[in-house]
Amino acid sequence: MCRDPLLNFDQRIELRSDKNAFRDEKTLSIDIMLDLPTMKGFHLTDQASRKRIMAQRIYDEVPEIVSRYNIPDFDSETFIEDLRTWIDELGWR
């Protein structure tokens, strides 16, 4: 989500429990806060720079946030390793 930092929006992080007929699932929702002036500063054809900024924020923030939560039957270390490997292999950083 792109926001002007001067507006002081808070990052939403929420761990929800979703109960359905089959099992109790946990869902972690995270806002990735992107600087609006920075993102607007790129020319519309410069999608690669925008993608790199977003990938870097995901690379840095998601592991930190995921590691704060204890989610049953979820291997956070493997998830973080896989996420970072995937971003690196795509060349987005």
**SSE order:** EEEEHHH
Distance between the termini: 19 Å
Helix content: 40-55%
Query: What is the general shape?
Result: globular
Low-confidence stretches: none
Reported for the largest beta sheet, the result is:
2 strands, parallel
Helix/strand/pairing category: alpha+beta
Q: Please give the order of strands in the largest beta sheet.
A: 1-4
Radius of gyration: 16 Å
Number of strands: 4
Q: What's the multimeric state?
A: single chain
Mean of residue pLDDT values: 88
Q: How large is the count of helical segments? A: 3
Topology:
Layout: E1 2-3, E2 13-19, E3 24-30, E4 34-35, H1 36-40, H2 47-66, H3 76-90
Parallel strand pairs: 1-4
Antiparallel strand pairs: 2-3
Helix pairs in contact: 2-3
Description:
This protein has one domain. Helix content is 43%, strand content 19%. The chain is built from three helices and four strands. The strands form two sheets. Strands 1-4 form a two-stranded parallel sheet. The chain has a two-stranded antiparallel ribbon with strand order 2-3. Helix 2 runs antiparallel to helix 3 (76-90). The model has no long low-confidence stretch (mean pLDDT 88).
Short précis:
By secondary structure, the chain is α+β, with helices and mostly antiparallel strands. The chain contains 3 helices and 4 strands, in the order ββββααα.
Task: List its traits.
single chain, 93 residues, alpha+beta, 3 helices, 19% strand, globular
